[in-house]
Amino acid sequence: MDDVILALTKGIAVYETLRTYNGKPFALKEHYERLKKSLGYLKIEPPSFESFEKLVYENLSERMRIVYVYSNKLLEYVLQEDREEFNVDYVKIDITNIRRADPWSIPPDLKSLGRPDIYLARLTKRDNYDVIMLGTRGQVCEGTFSNVFLIKNGKFITPSLESGILNGITRMYVIRFLKESGYEVEERFVELAEVFYADEVFLTHTSRGIVPVNQIGNIKISSVELSSKLSKAFEEYVKCLV
Length: 242
Hints:
Elements: H1 2-8, E1 12-21, E2 24-25, H2 28-41, H3 49-58, E3 63-71, E4 73-80, E5 92-95, H4 116-122, E6 130-134, E7 140-143, E8 147-152, E9 155-159, H5 169-180, E10 185-188, H6 192-197, E11 200-205, E12 209-212, E13 215-216, E14 219-220, H7 225-239
Parallel strand pairs: 5-6, 5-13, 9-10
Antiparallel strand pairs: 1-2, 1-3, 3-4, 6-7, 8-9, 8-11, 11-12, 13-14
């Protein structure tokens, strides 16, 4: 642990957050591939999949953060986190005035600790569950730890990867789940006004899967009926995959 702290003062850290279902980690290979990509941006040789898998299974908990720190050598640290902090009955979000870093400056899928844009956005959260960040062109991107979905006239809309967002693993599985359930999903640039005119809004992230949104700023969402139904169905869907 002392080596990790020393490395953090000199180097850089990347991470992945995993969740387990029935004692098994969900989407382990996808998390590993994304970790490899983050390390690849930094020109750091990744650990083998076998060592990553071993680290996960040696530290299994319902939710865990796997951190790799680099300063001359690659060091690892696992933080077992409490999923309960994400369990709230009424989800209120807002739009932050902190913009998502330009993808030409910081790749959206580089998951590193202490990203200044995300850190500054989190400072604006106040009593909100999360805050939505816009891109440099004013497009809707994502929350500080979540992806965003809208429901409008029975269609599901979510910002595309070209919008400058992290390719969220839960997002990816939710899209697959929705399509397999017979719904139309559109990935594209999303204007901010669309969020306020949507029939329903929900977030996706590792700890809770699908999270129905009750309120955006001072505006209450008229319904969470479909997103609440899908939230429960997605949990069962994932359990069948692990």
